[in-house]
Amino acid sequence: MTHNDTKLNNVLLDPQTGCAKCVLDLDTVMPGLSAYDFGDGVRFGASSAAEDEKDLDQVWLKLDMYQAFLEGYLDACGHALTPKEIEVLPLGAKIITAELAMRFLKDYLDGDVYFEIDYPTQNLDRRCASRAAAARRLRACGRASRAPAPARAGSRSRA
């Protein structure tokens, strides 16, 4: 089972300890691939910019955040994953980012009926930022077929 909307604002945190109490937004839970949950967490948590960033030069992957997420994910879930599942985790970030770019565009064309918006072209901006991020990650796909080695803190990738 996968959550399919893996991001921090879908976790209820204890106000005293900061520890996770439960997972929220369960309408997307279904059988799925661990790479998609991993990829959506990376898409949300290791991006350099807001989801609707208009300056596409500001959209890149924070490698230190990616590495921290990867290490935490493998520490918590790695024992339950096959070697192939671990190998394709980086691909999940590329696929889910490209998929969301298409979904943002579809929602914009449909009149913004699914994703909540704060301004009229927000889904179009989200689509452009997601597409830029996905394209950069897809170009890097051939360079790393396995989960990457630890990155230097503070480093970044336009991949």
Please render the helix and strand layout as text.
Elements: E1 11-13, E2 20-23, H1 34-45, E3 61-62, H2 63-77, H3 83-87, H4 89-109, H5 122-139, E4 156-157
Antiparallel strand pairs: 1-2, 3-4
Helix pairs in contact: 1-2, 1-4, 4-5
Distance between the termini: 28 Å
Major sheet: 2 strands, antiparallel
Low-confidence segments, ≥5 residues, pLDDT <50?
141-159
Number of helical regions: 5
The assigned structural class equals mainly alpha
**Biggest sheet: strand arrangement:** 1-2
Mean pLDDT comes to 85
- Name the overall outline: globular
Rg, Å, rounded: 16 Å
Fraction in beta strands: 5-15%
| Helix share, percent | 40-55%
- Spell out the helices and strands N to C: EEHEHHHHE
> How many beta-strand segments?
4
Overview of the structural elements:
A hairpin with a 6-residue loop joins strand 1 (11-13) and strand 2. Helix 1 (34-45) packs across helix 4. By secondary structure, the protein is mainly alpha-helical. The strands form 2 sheets. It has a two-stranded antiparallel sheet. Strands 3-4 form a two-stranded antiparallel ribbon. It has helices at residues 34-45, 63-77, 83-87, 89-109, 122-139, and strands at residues 11-13, 20-23, 61-62, 156-157. It is built from 5 helices and 4 strands; from the N terminus they run E-E-H-E-H-H-H-H-E. Residues 141-159 have low confidence and may be disordered.
